[in-house]
Structure formats: C-alpha cells, structure tokens
Amino acid sequence: MSLHYVRPTWADAVFNGAVGWFTRRGISLAGSRVLGVRGRTSGEWRETPVNPLRVAGERYLVAPRGHTQWVRNMRVAGGGRLRKGRRVEEFTATEIPDAEKPPILREYLRVWAWEVGRFFEGVDAASPDDRLLEIAPDFPVFRITDARSEQ
Fold this sequence. Notes:
Elements: H1 10-24, E1 33-38, E2 45-50, E3 53-55, E4 58-62, H2 69-77, E5 79-84, E6 87-95, H3 102-116, H4 129-135, E7 141-146
Antiparallel strand pairs: 1-2, 1-5, 3-4, 4-7, 5-6, 6-7
C-alpha cells in the first residue's frame, strides 16, 4: 500500500519559503505558523510552515500534501512547537481517526482552499460527507493541545 503524498513543486518551495520567512519574523500570513517537530531518526528539529485550524473549540493541523515527513515525524514525536516570531507554543498531538475527519476537512477546505485546494483533486468544502470520508486516509489530521494545559 502506497501512502498518498504530493511532492512540492519549485513554486511551492518558493511560496513556503516566503511564508516561513515572514512567520519566523512575526508576520503571520492568514494565520500561518512554523511547525517544529523532532526528526524521527535524527532527533533534530525540522521546520515547515503550516495552517493551524480551529473547529468547535479544538485546534488541528491538517496535512494537505498527505503523508509528509512532518506527519511521519509527528507520529513518532507526539507533539512539537508552533512559532510566530518570538512566540513559541509547545503542544502535544493526537492523530484523528478517519471517521472523525469529514467536518475538519470541510472546514479546512472552506478556510484554506485558496492555498491548498489543488491537493484535494476536485474535493471541496461543499463535497458530501461520504466523499470526504473516502479521501480521509490520504490527509492526516492531528488534534493539538497546548502542552502547558496538560501539566
């Protein structure tokens, strides 16, 4: 079984680089943050720009490119940090089962389709739940919780 993954193009790399650069300097583009997660084999911090999402009072990270390296690292690390400028938030992460993803994916597409819609190949915020459930295995979702609130 091959896991769904969309490799970034050169344009994606330039766009992500710009978003990361601004976000690291405290200028969030539409709510962006820089995700830091420890590498599953190296233990070194790896960073990538992400779009945190709030649904029904919970916060989530959705992987629009599928089973990326940050997703694989998050599964091992169980958490990471989100950064905007000098503000760093440590968090723990719990992967969401596919059956719970449709409302989260719908909201993610409603908010972020302008940026990531092309990765969902014709599925959008108006798609029926059964279609969102069908694609759910291709798009990992993590519920994130502030590490300080768990102490």
